[in-house]
């Protein structure tokens, strides 16, 4: 499998790391949609939200437990948005589960 985010997690493709532990990696998006735009991925390959099961959901729980600390380390004090796109209709551009952490500005009330 030639997954872009698996290759980034393996260190084969460079990224600007924000946070890393044995199970997940957070790095800056190369096409930021906000002043702070961090992608948070599990290091294990999951194609998207539809691939989350009871057996592998622990990594998603770990990501969500890490988000507040990542947001704080990025200076996000007035709030932030977390988004995960799932499938082509949602414009999921990389078929590896990932969460967008967006902040650093007043976000639009409407997301669509």
Q: Mind explaining what this structure looks like?
A:
This protein has helices spanning 4-9, 57-73, and strands at residues 17-20, 24-28, 36-42, 80-83, 99-103. The chain is α+β, with helices and mostly antiparallel strands and 112 residues long. It has a single domain, classed as 2-Layer Sandwich (HIT family, subunit A), CATH 3.30.428.10. The protein has a five-stranded antiparallel beta sheet with strand order 1-2-3-5-4, with helices on one face. Strand 2 and strand 3 form a beta hairpin. The longest helix is centred in the middle third of the chain and has 17 residues, at 57-73. The radius of gyration is 14 Å and the shape is globular. The mean pLDDT is 95.
Topology:
Elements lengths: L3 H6 L7 E4 L3 E5 L7 E7 L14 H17 L6 E4 L15 E5 L9
Antiparallel strand pairs: 1-2, 2-3, 3-5, 4-5
Shape: globular
Count the E strands: 5
Q: Given the structure, what is the number of helices?
A: 2
In whole angstroms, the N-to-C terminal distance is 32 Å
Order of strands across the biggest sheet?
1-2-3-5-4
Low-confidence stretches: none
Question: What is the N-to-C succession of helices and strands?
Answer: HEEEHEE
Report the radius of gyration as a whole number of Å.
14 Å
Question: Hey, roughly how much beta strand do the residues contain?
Answer: 15-25%
CATH topology: HIT family, subunit A
Structural class: alpha+beta
* Total discrete domains: 1
């Amino acid at each position: 499998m030639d997954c872009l985010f698996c290759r980034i997690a393996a260190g084969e493709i460079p990224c600007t790391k924000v946070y890393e532990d044995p199970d997940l990696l957070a790095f800056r998006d190369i096409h930021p949609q906000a002043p702070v735009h961090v992608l948070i991925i599990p290091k294990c390959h999951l194609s998207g939200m539809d691939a989350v099961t009871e057996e592998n959901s622990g990594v998603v729980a770990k990501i969500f437990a890490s988000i507040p600390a990542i947001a704080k380390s990025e200076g996000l004090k007035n709030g932030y948005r977390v988004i995960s796109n799932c499938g082509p209709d949602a414009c999921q551009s990389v078929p590896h589960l990932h969460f967008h952490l967006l902040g650093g500005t007043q976000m639009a009330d409407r997301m669509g």
